[in-house]
Amino acid sequence: MKKVVKKFSISDIENLTGIKAHTIRVWEQRYNFFTTKRTDTNIRYYDDADLCMFLNIATLNENGYKISKISKMDIDEINNLVKRLKEDHYNANVQVQMLSNAMLKMDDDEFDEILTGCVNDMGMEASMADIIFPFLRKVGFMWQVGSINPAHEHFATHKIGQKLIQQTYLHKKPSKHDSKRYLLFLPPNETHEVGLLFAQYLLKANGHQTLYLGQNLPFESIAEVNAYFEPDFAFSVLTVSNSDNNIDVTVKKLRENLGNTPLILAGNQVSYHNICPQENLILIKNIKEFTQITEKLGMSIAS
């Protein structure tokens, strides 16, 4: 079967790499980076190899290498230099860029290699705080400006979710005599599970019991399972701006269906809105706050 050649316009390259179209044209004229390719109708295009090269150039340029120096390197030199940068898993900026590159190419093996390297060297918690959450914020921005489509975001979040699940059961500790019971879920219209999966990882790594119910759980089901499971705490994440209900209405419904069970809330909507303080409601705006609050409650987080 004949291989289908992907064709990217200069605006596609601009959106996918962040390099302005004008800059690309200047680089081509000044440094003769790319061989011109044209369709049968004489429309200029770039292929997969060009996209990979642009992504590598962007990575080097963002890490202090001037384009005049990059232009004097051959393809092997550029690839080897990017590879050396990629091997430094503690360089957060590089790893965020490399994950972005792998996502844009939808390269499953490359994304997994980068993610696994970071987790093996840094641990899951540090990788989440320093690399994965900053990467997800970048993904959100890229989606808003139209640089990526939903398939890119789904690819990345599912790969991260798979890694979190793997690490959760790899480092799970037996329940402690003083362990707490946690009910973890996302309310209606919430589908982003990475934060919820990370909370499960932290809790299970410390010997606590969790009941994980995933995304888009109806409010009436929350009340039923809360009565059945009798958790010490409920944990949820509010990421999506819900056009049907404002944040205070959502919180009110959660509190009504959880009764006296303390609710810990995290997510973008918690960070960006002034939620009215109320009894049995604990708000966390970042990983550091989650660690501090859980320690205050006598539930240490794994280092």
UniProtKB/TrEMBL annotation:
Residues 7-76 form the HTH merR-type domain. InterPro entries: Cbl-bd_cap, Cobalamin-bd_sf, DNA-bd_dom_put_sf, MerR-type_HTH_dom, Meth_synthase_dom. Transmembrane segments: none annotated. GO terms for molecular function: cobalamin binding; DNA binding; metal ion binding. GO terms for biological process: regulation of DNA-templated transcription. It comes from the Bacteria. SMART domains: HTH_MERR. This is MerR family transcriptional regulator.
